[in-house]
Amino acid sequence: MSALLAGLVAAALAWATTGALRKLLTAKEILDHPNARSSHAHPIPRGGGIAVMAVILFGWLALGLAEITPLRLIWPLLGLSFGLALVSWADDLRGLSPLLRFTAQIAAVSIALSTVPLGPHFPGPLPLWLAIGSAALAWLWFVNLFNFMDGIDTIAGVETVTIAGGTAVVAAALGLLDGSSWLAAVVAGAALGFLVWNRPPARIFLGDVGSVPLGFLLAWLLLSLAAHGAWAAALILPAYFLTDATLTLLRRALRGEKPWHAHREHFYQQAVQKGAGHGRVSASVAVANLALFACALASLHGLSAAIAALAASLVIVLVLLWYLRRGATW
Asked: Which of 6, 83, 180, 194 is deepest in the core (most CB within 10 A)?
């Protein structure tokens, strides 16, 4: 079975389990009511991430048991992702303090750092302690920014499909034999199956139970690429989410606002508020991500190609942010 087939199986399972879960969440009245951060007007079932993460975790376990990827590598990630999902589900249901959520994330990242394959390209020119510390901070930021950016229909699913799908292709192009392309394909497939239910108008939301552990696993996949020398590709694939979330945080910090407070100031949210629909905004992000994927592939051919690809990626992201800020779409 190829990685592509594994992704398609994951997509079918995620589609079926999300549909069944939606009925249960609706019956239990576990709904996402409109608030200062949201961009929807009516209550929508929240918690679709339970189905997505169940498919991913079982899929990764199956790959480990089939010896496609090392099982010793999978166990810690499965346990940590499950733990983050539990904490995030409690936050979805009744709300937890930011300190408790962040403490759980710090613990998960600290333990998971030992599972990143430290190849000959890691730590690169940096001292080992500085490289590990930088990786930990980047991982923590990615987990949180992925959660912050899940603010309109489809966008988190689109980003997951493109980042994980891009990672799978890059890993295959590098000829990695650790099964990382299969792992990434399962993540992309699960997100694709969820998108059927989350396309505008969304019939179910991912919830923190999905966005937090998804950000955790995507960051691990990207760090694994960087550890194998594809550092430029690891930066390029999530470039839009990284840029939008970071610039928004900096703007709010300069105004003295607390970063964990709900808001609708991301570029993609501003576009929706100015009249661009959820679907058009997410489609714009998807188009930009496809261009970023091409840049990521181009970066695999030497240092000069990596620099050129990073420069091209910067232009693509800046153009996208300009379009979204103005409320325009492609």
From this structure: 194
Cis previous bond, 127, omega within 30: no
Q: What is the pLDDT of residues 5-27, one digit of tens each?
A: 999 999 999 999 999 999 999 99
- In this prediction, residues 103-109 reach a mean pLDDT of 96
* Cα(321)–Cα(134) distance, integer angstroms: 26
pLDDT at 226 over 60: yes
Which run of H or E residues covers position 270? helix 267-273
φ, ψ for residue 115 (rounded to 5)? -95, -10
* Other C-beta atoms lying within 10 Å of the C-beta of residue 95: 8
Question: Rounded to whole angstroms, how far apart are CA atoms 145 and 212?
Answer: 9
What's the rounded Cα separation, in Å, for the pair 229 and 226?
Answer: 5
Q: Identify which of 24, 20, 46 has the alpha carbon closest to the alpha carbon of residue 33.
A: 46
Q: Measure the CA–CA gap between 186 and 178, rounded to whole angstroms.
A: 14
The token duo for 218 is: 């995507």
The DSSP secondary structure of 48-108, one letter per residue, reads: THHHHHHHHHHHHHHHHHTTSS-HHHHHHHHHHHHHHHHHHHHHHHH---HHHHHHHHHHH
Domain boundaries, the chain: 3-326
Q: What is the mean pLDDT of the chain?
A: 90
Cα–Cα distance for residue pair 10/74, rounded to 1 Å: 17
Buried/exposed 109-144: b ≥16 CB within 10 Å, e otherwise: beebbebbebeeebeeeeeeeebbeebbebbbbbbb
